[in-house]
Write a sequence for this structure.
């Protein structure tokens, strides 16, 4: 059995749409026929469970503590993917020490899925930094806001140090259109080329779409609530790009 591909979703700045994209991407990959696990790695403020309206019985910490298996903790969704929730309300997960992070990543690598989508918390702290460096592919979510851009660059800079060969890609979210997304990516790519000696690929552009908020408000995955809407189509294209690059690898 081959190991799953670990696809991390990170950002510098918070609130740029990581969790929403993680859920959408997971669903799109599942629709493309892949066996996918969505793992909530936002250990401080886990919210995959909130956006999907899940009732959590066993969380990640219970799995790491050896109380339950990944299989027991994972929640099967009717859309054809599984979710490993980050919390069950116990809190206090943010201070995971490095050994636990290593165990978490090893646990995900042993899961019987084709892809694991890992929602990583915002920021540059040791936990998101270590999780980011441990992924096969890291999607760094940015918007065209200056603070989001500088923070996304900071994530890419640390990644270049921690995992110089990592497959990092920028995903521009909340874009007005594809052209604006391309410009935002070009700005980041220029900074990376100039200061890190290596550019960064564009994973995809996801347009601002009011139906995303509506889906979250109804605690339903976007592709279920609003199939075919702009953001859903963009996320499907992002998933197709990931599947194609896996096939080519
Ligand atoms: N493409 C989009 N179009 C419109 N709204 C969006 C889009 N993507 C995300 N949003 C909205 O942005 C808000 C933040 O999204 P989300 O919680 O997924 O961000 P996050 O990066 O995970 O935040 P945090 O850093 O707090 O974990 C949500 O209200 C969501 O509905
Ligand atoms: Mg989030």
């Amino acid at each position: 059995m081959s190991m799953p591909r670990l696809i991390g979703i990170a950002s510098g700045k918070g609130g740029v749409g990581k969790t929403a994209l993680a859920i959408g991407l997971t669903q799109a990959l599942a629709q493309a026929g892949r066996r996918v696990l969505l793992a909530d790695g936002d250990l401080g403020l886990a919210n995959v469970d909130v956006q999907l309206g899940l009732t959590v019985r066993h969380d990640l910490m219970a799995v790491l503590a050896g109380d339950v298996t990944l299989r027991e903790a994972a929640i099967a969704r009717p859309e054809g993917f599984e979710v490993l929730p980050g919390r069950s309300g116990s809190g206090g997960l943010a201070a995971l020490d490095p050994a636990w992070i290593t165990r978490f990543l090893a646990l995900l690598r042993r899961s019987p899925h084709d892809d694991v989508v890992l929602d990583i918390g915002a920021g540059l702290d040791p936990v998101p930094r270590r999780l980011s460096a441990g992924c096969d592919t890291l999607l760094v979510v940015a918007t065209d806001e200056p603070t989001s851009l500088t923070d996304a660059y900071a994530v890419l800079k640390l990644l270049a140090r921690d995992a110089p060969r990592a497959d990092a890609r920028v995903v521009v979210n909340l874009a007005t259109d594809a052209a604006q997304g391309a410009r935002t990516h070009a700005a980041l790519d220029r900074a990376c080329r100039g200061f890190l000696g290596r550019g960064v690929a564009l994973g995809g552009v996801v347009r601002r779409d009011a139906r995303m908020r509506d889906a979250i408000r109804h605690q339903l995955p976007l592709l279920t609530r609003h199939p075919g809407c702009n953001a859903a189509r963009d996320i499907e294209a992002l998933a197709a790009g990931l599947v194609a690059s896996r096939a080519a690898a």
The chain has a mean pLDDT of 93. The two ends are 17 Å apart (CA to CA). The first helix runs from residue 18 to 31.
